[in-house]
Amino acid sequence: MKRTALLLGTLLLGACSSDNSTPTTADAASANTDAPPGRCTARLVRLRTGPDSACGGQSAHYWPIGLAATDCHGWRALDTGGRSHDNSANTIRCNADGSFSFMQFAGNLNCTGTGTVKTYRLNMCAQDTPPSLYTVADDLTCCSAPDSAACTTGNPSVSVAGATIYLNGTTCAN
User: What is the mean pLDDT of each run of 10 residues along the chain (174 residues)?
Assistant: First the structure.
């Protein structure tokens, strides 16, 4: 169970969270400066990730859509062992077939190195990486009806305590 919690924390560190925490000096130094207020605001879709193979009770990651393909959405969070993990993604998009996809980069906040393409479909639970985790897209309203009142707009976030969200290397104001 402890290993599963550590893995969940590690994966979600590749997810987003806005908890109004203050970045440490090291965080601030590696992230340049804060983004201007409103700069990170976007239409959002929600994925949930966790160890349940039926995708029940998962932690949420609110992903920004409508960014340029080269824009880099990053997140830093602590796992249950207190270790910091960085993840980032670009080419974040809604697809014509109704799915949602992005290219994820582990270990950095600037979308460099070898990325992994990830694609999710509404209400379809899928085994993730690592294989002990499962992810479901449970709100793609902003993909299917971006101008509807049901489309959520705000700052991207991850439901992991202490997570910090970045856009193109700068922290997003919460």
Answer: 39 36 31 56 95 89 96 89 91 97 96 96 94 94 96 93 92 76
**Cβ proximity of 157 and 166 under 8 Å:** no
The residue type at 34: D
Distance of alpha carbon 65 from alpha carbon 41, whole angstroms = 10
> How far apart, in whole angstroms, are the C-alpha atoms of residue 62 and residue 85?
18
In the structure encoding, which two tokens stand for residue 131, read together?
A: 């294989």
Polymer length in residues for the chain: 174
- Strand duo 73-78 + 59-65: pairing: unpaired
- 9 token code pair: 């924390």
Is the torsion defined by CA of 33, 163, 104, 114 positive or negative? positive
CA distances from 77 to 45, 93, 96, 166 (A): 20, 23, 32, 11
This prediction has a pTM of: 0.79
What are the boundaries of each domain within the chain? 2-44+58-121+139-171
Q: Which candidate, 31, 13, 11, 14, places its Cα nearest to that of 22?
A: 31
Phi-psi label, residue 85: left if phi above 0, alpha if psi -120 to 50, beta otherwise: beta
